[in-house]
Write a structure and sequence with these properties.
Layout (H helix, E strand, L loop, with lengths): L1 E2 L13 H15 L3 H17 L13 H13 L5 H8 L9 H16 L3 H29 L4 E7 L5 H14 L3 E5 L4 E7 H26 L17 H34 L3 H19 L4 E2 L7 H11 L13
Parallel strand pairs: 1-3
Antiparallel strand pairs: 1-5, 2-4, 3-4
Helix pairs in contact: 1-2, 5-6, 5-8, 6-8, 6-9, 6-10, 7-8, 7-9, 8-9, 8-11, 9-11
């Protein structure tokens, strides 16, 4: 995961001096604000606006929406037919859309992982979801490669406080497993994800589910009393340092386990699809990297900080209570 200043945006033309005086004067008269106080507030507002950071534009401007929509329609009409597209049509799936049945299976597994109170079941359901996600993403990649479709997309995801940086680490780790690049904007507490459409959708689904599971595990850990040295005896583990370390450790260990499930599914898919899979995945990764570097030419790695040792151990334990038993979970 990288962090850095958002890119510069386009400059806008503001109102003229006479228009500004008319607007401020009308506002003062309507609200009964004295002239000196009104202009003081306006100058403060202008000063704050000057200090705002610009956001990198991720899509076409509103004036270009019609052109972009027309270009997308043209690409959809010109897509060549294939056995894969024929099967999708028979299933009622329009070109460019994702399979709702497979997405439904993945959502059902993640919902079960969020609902269960047993760590072993949650691990198994999450692993099976990652397994299906990897297989589904590979099938979509091969289909898009045959059709000549597939474009790199970008989305913004707001990360709520507290511990926003620890939460975005979880998002970044999930993105790495699923071929999605993530950049963190600390000023706006917002992450930008860059990847193929199917990968972005799957990453958002998995991240949301894991965040629910991590929050529940953190709450359970906070209710455990401790008498270890350095901590008040009988007090609950609710210190910010403990919680931050817990979430960071949980994210890293979950990432290791998701990577294992993803690598296993990729290896099995490679055996099924043959040598055609490797260049397709490499080409998609290169396109994602190219788009990311164009949007964010200047980035920096987020430096690791010292964390609470007990919180780190508790977070790893919460993510590592059982081996992923993905083969024992039914996907239907």
């Amino acid at each position: 995961m990288t962090g850095g200043p958002p890119g510069a945006g386009t400059s806008a033309v503001g109102p003229s001096k006479s228009e500004t005086e008319w607007l401020v004067g009308g506002w003062q008269f309507a609200h009964g604000v004295p002239m000196w106080q009104g202009w003081r507030d306006v100058l403060r507002l202008f000063g704050q606006l000057q200090s705002l950071r610009r956001l990198t534009p991720l899509g076409p401007l509103p004036s270009q929406w019609d052109q972009a929509r027309a270009a997308e329609t043209t690409r959809a009409v010109r897509r060549p037919a294939s056995p894969a597209t024929d099967r999708a049509g028979d299933a009622g799936i329009e070109p460019g859309e994702h399979d709702p049945r497979m997405l439904g299976k993945i959502r059902a597994l993640l919902s079960k992982a969020e609902a269960t109170t047993f760590a072993e079941e949650a691990d198994a359901y999450t692993a099976k979801a990652q397994d299906l996600m990897t297989r589904y993403a590979i099938d979509e990649a091969l289909l898009e490669a045959f059709e000549g479709s597939g474009a790199v997309l970008t989305r913004r995801i707001h990360i709520d406080n507290p511990y926003a940086q620890a939460k975005v680490q979880l998002l970044s780790i999930v993105g790495d497993v699923n071929r999605v690049r993530v950049i963190w904007d600390d000023f706006h507490t917002m992450a930008t994800v860059v990847g193929m459409a199917v990968d972005l959708q799957l990453v958002e689904m998995l991240f949301t589910s894991l965040l629910v599971q991590a929050t529940r595990a953190l709450t359970e850990a906070g209710n455990v009393r401790t008498s270890q040295a350095g901590y008040s005896s009988g007090r609950m583990n609710r210190a910010p340092s403990f919680r931050r370390a817990f979430l960071l450790s949980y994210a890293h260990r979950i990432g290791e386990r998701l990577a294992e499930a993803g690598d296993r599914a990729t290896a099995e898919s490679s055996a099924s699809h043959g040598a055609e899979l490797v260049p397709v995945l490499r080409r998609r990764a290169e396109e994602v990297d190219k788009t990311f570097d164009r949007l964010f030419p200047q980035t920096r790695e987020i430096r690791a900080k010292r964390v609470d040792a007990r919180g780190w151990d508790a977070g790893r334990t919460a993510a590592d209570r059982a081996v992923f038993l993905s083969g024992q979970v039914e996907s239907g």
